[in-house]
């Protein structure tokens, strides 16, 4: 599987292939884009609408050794 995350400042200690553990591994911090643009999601939330986009897809081939 390939997991892609956008709108996030990644933890610099993580590398491609690093093992992750649910509710334990910190992958990064949400980037605050509210100073740059008014986000449409903010109309439906109690905050500036900052969010992370996560995409999961099957890997075409293994990129790990």
Sequence-ordered SSE layout with sheet pairings:
Elements: E1 2-6, E2 8-10, E3 28-30, E4 53-57
Antiparallel strand pairs: 1-4, 2-3
Description:
This protein has 65 residues and is mostly beta strands. The protein has one domain (2-57). The chain has no helices and 4 strands. The chain has strands at residues 2-6, 8-10, 28-30, 53-57. A two-stranded antiparallel ribbon has the order 1-4. A two-stranded antiparallel ribbon has the order 2-3. The two termini are 15 Å apart. The model has no long low-confidence stretch (mean pLDDT 83).
Brief overview:
By secondary structure, this protein is mainly beta. It has strands spanning 2-6, 8-10, 28-30, 53-57.
- Would you tell me the overall average pLDDT? 83
How many helices? The count is: 0
How many domains? The number is: 1
β-sheet strand percentage = 15-25%
> What is the ordering of alpha helices and beta strands?
EEEE
Distance between the termini: 15 Å
Percentage of residues assigned to helices: under 10%
Largest sheet: 2 strands, antiparallel
As a whole number of angstroms, the C-alpha radius of gyration is 15 Å
Q: Low-confidence segments, ≥5 residues, pLDDT <50?
A: none
Shape: elongated
Count the E strands. 4
Structural class call reads mainly beta
Widest sheet, order of strands: 1-4
Q: Which key terms come to mind for this protein?
A:
elongated; 4 strands; single chain; two-stranded antiparallel ribbon; mainly beta; 65 residues
């Amino acid at each position: 599987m390939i997991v892609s995350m956008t709108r996030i400042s990644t933890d610099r200690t993580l590398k491609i292939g690093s093992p992750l553990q649910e509710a334990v591994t910190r992958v990064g911090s949400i980037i605050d884009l509210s100073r740059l643009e008014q986000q449409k999601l903010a109309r439906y939330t109690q905050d500036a609408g900052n969010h992370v986009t996560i995409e999961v897809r099957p890997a075409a081939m293994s990129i790990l050794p």
